[in-house]
C-alpha cells in the first residue's frame, strides 16, 4: 500500500471550495486526464455509490466508489470496482482553513498491480495538479 497527501491552497472561502469539491459532476467537467464521466448520482453523502467511467484514449473503464464517511468539510470514497492498474483505492477529501486560505487536502491510499511509485508520480500526481489548475480557473471565472 502507498499513501500520499496533496495540499492545494486557494484564495477563496472554505465554503466556496467545499461546495465545488462536493459536486462530482464538476469533477467530470474539470478532469482532462484521464477523461472522467459521471454515471448517475454523484452526491458525496455517506452510503452513496459514485459511478464513473475513466477514459484513456479509446478505452473507457468503470470506476465505482462508495462514500464511506461524510462529515464536516470532509468525505472518504473507497474504490469498489477499479480499473487496471489499481487493486485498492481510498481517497479522503477535506477542506481546511489555513492562514486565510482554503486548502484542499487529498489523502490517498492505494495499491496497484504495477509499482505504486510509478502510479503515484505518472498518473495520480499529474491528475491532482491538473484538477487544481481547473479548480483555480473555475474560481477565477
UniProtKB/TrEMBL annotation:
Gene3D superfamilies: 3.30.530.20. This is Cyclase.
Amino acid at each position: 500500500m502507498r499513501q500520499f497527501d496533496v495540499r492545494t491552497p486557494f484564495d477563496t472561502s472554505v465554503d466556496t471550495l467545499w461546495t465545488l469539491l462536493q459536486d462530482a459532476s464538476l469533477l467530470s467537467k474539470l478532469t482532462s486526464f484521464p477523461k472522467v464521466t459521471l454515471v448517475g448520482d454523484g452526491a458525496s453523502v455517506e452510503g452513496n455509490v459514485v459511478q464513473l467511467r475513466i477514459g484513456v484514449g479509446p478505452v473507457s473503464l468503470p470506476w465505482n466508489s462508495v462514500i464511506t464517511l461524510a462529515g464536516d468539510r470532509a468525505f472518504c470514497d473507497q474504490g469498489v470496482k477499479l480499473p487496471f492498474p489499481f487493486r485498492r483505492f481510498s481517497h479522503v477529501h477535506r477542506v481546511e482553513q489555513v492562514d486565510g486560505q482554503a486548502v484542499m487536502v487529498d489523502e490517498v491510499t492505494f495499491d496497484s498491480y504495477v509499482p505504486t511509485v510509478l502510479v503515484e508520480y505518472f498518473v495520480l500526481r499529474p491528475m491532482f495538479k491538473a484538477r487544481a489548475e481547473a479548480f483555480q480557473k473555475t474560481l477565477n471565472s
